[in-house]
Amino acid sequence: MDYRQAHPEVTVLDPPDAIQHLRNRQSMLQDVADINLSNSYGRVGVPKQLVITSDDASSIPDAVTQAGIKLPLVAKPLLADGSSKSHELSIAYDPESLQKLDPPLVLQEFVNHGGVMFKVYIIGEAIKVVRRFSLPDVSKRELTKNSGVFPVPRVSCAAASAEDADLDPRVAEIPPYPLLERLAKELRRRLGLHLFNLDIIRDHGNPDRFYVIDINYFPGYGKMPEYEYMFTDFFLSLGQRKYKKYALASC
Ligand SMILES: Nc1ncnc2c1ncn2[C@@H]1O[C@H](COP(=O)(O)OP(=O)(O)OP(=O)(O)O)[C@@H](O)[C@H]1O
Ligand SMILES: [Mg+2]
């Protein structure tokens, strides 16, 4: 803030406090929940979730029952600070094993989505969607058979791209652009950020229902095809905006 005031000539793209908002998995998804976007192209929300801050893991099964959220649950460290620990996610299949978890956490309902997710990159006003492999569905049978807490492998970061894979079109179809554009526009405004991405999954039982499960600030753009062109356009648009401002001020 001080720096910004002392140097009005410097363009601060995304302010640190707005970026900070994404370092907590609870506050990160709050705006998506508030927007509660629904139009003729579909609906976008957040999986039902519960935040556990108490150190006493033995109270988690009761808290889950009271919140009415359903197993299996994805347990995510509350802080998403980029450390490798903050990416250590697990899946819990039965109430008993919830006591083995290590708070502070966000417990999120696991949504079956057919093993494919969408990384939606936002660069200013531009959007690029990339398909990635994700976790496979959990069947009712598996849910009754499995018990325990299992680490979640970082499937979406694996080298294999889902772009050219032979996938069920109902699972692989990119979410409708008009829906993503509305969401991106609202989020840009509410978050006060220009450079971020959304991890989105489609409910396997309901193709019009989408869930945002993660938002990252300045994600690895290297994995995004054509990022060079999109960044060039973005920087040019910033330059033009600044030029217009100066031109108006000096009139
Ligand atoms: N609610 C959910 N339902 C189903 N699968 C989920 C859910 N949340 C997360 N996953 C799966 O777990 C993966 C990692 O989750 P998430 O993106 O929230 O964590 P992360 O630590 O930020 O991981 P990454 O850096 O790999 O994106 C997702 O890509 C997806 O495959
Ligand atoms: Mg993610």
From TrEMBL:
Entry note: cofactor: Binds 2 magnesium ions per subunit.
Q: Give cofactor(s), names only.
A: Mg(2+)
EC class: transferase
Positions that bind ATP: 25, 76, 108-119, 134
Query: What EC number(s) has UniProt assigned to this enzyme?
Result: 2.7.1.159
Quote the InterPro entries the UniProt record gives.
Answer: ATP-grasp (IPR011761), Inositol_tetrakis-P_1-kinase (IPR008656), InsP(3)kin_ATP-grasp (IPR040464)
Biological process (GO) annotations?
inositol trisphosphate metabolic process
- List the keywords (alphabetical): ATP-binding, Kinase, Magnesium, Metal-binding, Nucleotide-binding, Transferase
Q: How does it assemble?
A: Monomer.
What is the name of this protein? inositol-1,3,4-trisphosphate 5/6-kinase
Q: Which organism is it from?
A: Kalanchoe fedtschenkoi (Lavender scallops)
